[in-house]
Amino acid sequence: MGAHRTRREHSIVAAFEGEIVMLPPGPKGKLLSGNISAYEKDRLGFIVESSREFGDVWMFDRRIAVAAAPGAADEVYRRTYRDFVPDRNFLHRRQKEDPKLQEQWAHSRASRMRGMRPKALQAKVPILAGAITEHLDTWAADGTLDVVPDMRKLTSQLGARLCFGQTDAAIVAGGEQDLFWALLPVIASPVDVPPWVPTRRNRKVAAANRELERRIQTVIDRRRAEQRSAEDDLLSIVMTPTGRSGQLDDQLICETLIATMLAAQGAPAPGMAWIFHLLAEYPGVQDQVAAEALRVLPDGPDIRWEQSGKLTFTEQVVKEVLRLWPPNWLSGRQVVRRTMVGKYDLLPGMMMMVAPYVIHRDSRWFSDPETFKPDRWKKGGETEDLPECAYAPFGAGPLICMGLAWSMIEMTLLTAMVVRRFRINAVPGCVVTPDASREITPSGLRLRFTERKGSLGTGPSARQVQAAE
Ligand code: HEM
Which atom of ligand 1 approaches the CA of 109 most closely? Predict the structure, then answer.
């Protein structure tokens, strides 16, 4: 955030159950609409500016507080399920009110996490590489691409394979995209209409959700009928009873896998689009990624973890892009009991928003924070001793992103595989703006992908490409 301006950190004094409490300070806003119109005009700008002015914890309005520094973010993340509960997504709100469902979701999470252990995921690199190659084969040798929808399609297919394996992913494929597109206007809307209100949008979401549940149930029934229980995917893991939670019911299995599939493309798709955008803006960095890919990856699509795990510079690029453009730029929690964050009181019923976007652009934690510098992530670099939650694109604490390890493997490999095969260039006249109506997305982004000379369609020969450049 550059140099910090003089801060107005005077707390707001209020009364709660007969006691004086000190709420965080914040912008006053307009008499009737508060800060909504300023926020809607420029969401990112408003959050950054207010954090500069009012400090590490501040109030958006009487109901919503914002954590804009690592210490405050760490407290909120780690005290989730104690002082805070997650602000549940639109589809699965009933979980918030029902402690039994919360417990079952926690068990499902624990099961899915077993399938997301780095070792289990590293074994999936050949499958990932194969699917990425198939997708890149559909690109023109020299063409302009609408990057975000294309990446949604790909990351969604990769997520479906993670959840349902090679064979059964096809049964589910597409259903989750329909649900995503039905959900988009509902989630992006500033007006919160509960799912049970039969608006046209809500009915569309409900229909797409039912269809996806039906497809997943088909896969579950088939696996039971064919006694296929040892598939190498998340469905198989959540279908296996555990000593602690027994057998999860089918409805819960469907819900948790739908949540996983939606998350598997919700953040990675815009994340990948930002990566390609920045590589087009910084051709020198793109050349370094290409050189690394040619050095460590074998020719063609047969790639294993032993090779892709050596893409260290490419991984630095991914980390740096997620610092500048963390797709989940705000994470919400509800305050469930009177508590404190930093020196301020928070009261039950309030919302607490953690703002990684602000923290990631604060010069107290990152030098020259607005600049794209992948080298800050190299071994022994400036990020080695960051405080907890100074970098948290995947959140932290009990709700930390389940897809962290998967995303890092997927995004690093995908970046390297694209760049070794295509040169990425900006399209003249294309104006890119960050859209923060949900995950931050480079709206309007189109890029030109030109196959490098000597590329062989299903993956270039390293020697050919090196010789050509
Ligand atoms: C760029 C990639 C990704 C980013 C930046 C990201 C970020 C996040 C963040 C910040 C949260 C926590 C939200 C909170 O604290 O309230 C989260 C939760 C979650 N993420 Fe990701 N995510 C990514 C990719 C993925 C992928 C690929 C998957 C699945 C394969 C996934 C599955 C999930 C799930 C299921 C949750 C909810 C966890 C729970 O409720 O227990 N994410 N993600």
Answer: 41
